[in-house]
Amino acid sequence: MKFLVINGSPRKQNTYNVIKQAKVNLNGDFEEINLIKENIPMCNGCFKCILESETECPHYDKIDPIIEKLHECDGLIIGSPVYAMNVTGLLKNFFDHTAYLYHRPEFFTKKALVVVTTAGAGHKKVAKYIDETLRHWGVNKVYKISFACGGNDSLDNDKVNKVSQKFAFDLISNKLHSPKFTDIIFYNVWRAMALSKDPIKADKEYWFNTGLVNHDFSPEVKLNIPKIVFAKIVFNVLKKAIK
């Protein structure tokens, strides 16, 4: 099993130590990306990744290798300490470069473990933000480890072990979880947008080329009957509204 670790901290302290402890419960090979070493330029908000193609991003040569590793891994571990009540600038900059994935989600079979630590507060809020971002990417299931360390090196290894073991068991099971209703809504927003009279060219090409435009949700992920009905209603309402 292949794991990709994306470390959003410029240091290797509490967040990094939690990731190290989580790895004890995971059996496989680990590849680590420390964003501080990637030297990714700041996103300049040119919108090319959204409007034209992610290949048109001026920093594509820095971002694409990471995206490819995301495709190749079985499990993703992503960590950040709390900086000013949010993720670090390093991780936020990386997320900004993946804005196109909100329009064109890809990772429907992936599962992730999010690690957030803080000396004070904000850890739950930051973990939720990372969770939401990954779900916009299409990620199937996100596990979260977040807690306040009180400014010292005391870590709750019992909590780390419990959550990381659940993550490990879920990966081994190969089970894909039913999406949340909010995930179905966002999926069908972009699906309907691809069918509008004036769609974003890159979005339309993605949704039609992948065939996702023809599905209530990614066909790899099963929906129960209530969610199928919900998806169809949402899609038809949005399709009419977006015309």
Automatic annotation (TrEMBL):
InterPro entries: Flavoprotein-like_sf, FMN_Rdtase-like_dom, ISF_SsuE-like. SUPFAM superfamilies: Flavoproteins (SSF52218). Residues 1-138 form the NADPH-dependent FMN reductase-like domain. Keywords: Flavoprotein, FMN. Its cofactor is [4Fe-4S] cluster; FMN. One of its GO terms (molecular function) is oxidoreductase activity. Belongs to the SsuE family. Isf subfamily. This is Multimeric flavodoxin WrbA.
